[in-house]
Design a protein that fits this description.
By secondary structure, the chain is an alpha/beta fold. The chain is elongated, with a radius of gyration of 21 Å. Helices cover 45% and strands 14% of the residues. The chain has two domains: 112 residues, no CATH class; 190 residues, Glycogen Phosphorylase B (Rossmann fold). The strands form two sheets. Strands 7-6-5-8-9-10 form a six-stranded parallel sheet, with helices on both faces. The protein has a four-stranded parallel sheet with strand order 1-2-3-4, sandwiched between helices. Helix 6 crosses helix 11 and helix 9 crosses helix 12.
Amino acid sequence: MKKENPSLVIGVGMLSNIIVFFFAFINNFFVKKKVKVITTVHNTFYRNGNYDGLHPSIAYSNSQKLLKLALGKSDRCICVSKGIESEIIRIFNLKNTVTIYNGIDIKKIIQMSRFYNINEKNGVTDSLLEKLDDRKIIKITTVSRLIAQKDISTTIKAFRLVNDNISNTILLIIGVGTEYDNLNKLVNALNLSRKIYFIGATKNPYYFLKRTNIYINSAIYEGFGYSIIEAMSLGKPVVATDSPYGPREILDGGKYGILTRVKSEKEMSTTIIKLITDKKLFQSYSLLSKKRAQDFSLDKMNAAYTQLIKSLANSPN
């Protein structure tokens, strides 16, 4: 940073926020040229998303003081959702916050969805690729890190109930994480190993999203929900848990997709079945998804960042 001599630095993530803040603090103490700081917050600070306790990373008073210092003393603190913004105002009593939603490159997503690199080493088989192109098979998909926060077990249990009623369905789980072994055991225990596919890591989830029918998100808490927007950009109806905070904001309270209670596989499965069997409802949400995705374009995000950076650059030190 000293070599580059920046006039503004941006932290992405908590550790990065703290580092850039202290860099700017030390620089501004010794150098006349002030370096301005933008910090960012991408997820909830509450454990399990239900306010039963702060996340261990800030559960201690010293951690809270350090984060409040870094976030509060930055020139602007960007939050990826209004829910996150209201939360950090409540926890840290900040006065410098603003919400800028994450953006997606819709044109690139559409382009990448047309092709798949079969040389990727993951859980994709020739048999699965054939099923993806079989219009008689209903494809349900989630893209997620396989961690406790994402509650993929609810997705699996909901799919079991769907499959009990509609047999021509498969579930694609795209992602990797520490919960893989537990989730795989659950799939085997439910005798669904031939119906649920763990894709693993892939550089192109859009190929699978393009060929899916319904996208689901069963997170317990979700700062934003980036993959929800990606699926919507390809016209996929979304069923998501009403978790803090992203899904509700993205779906505008249920206007652009269907929200279900957290950890309710029954409610989620009932909703999925309704989408499958009601063609008019399915088509309606498909069109609404494409429309809503435009509100989260990369161009809109870049414009918001550019405007903020220019305003800070033009403001007095």
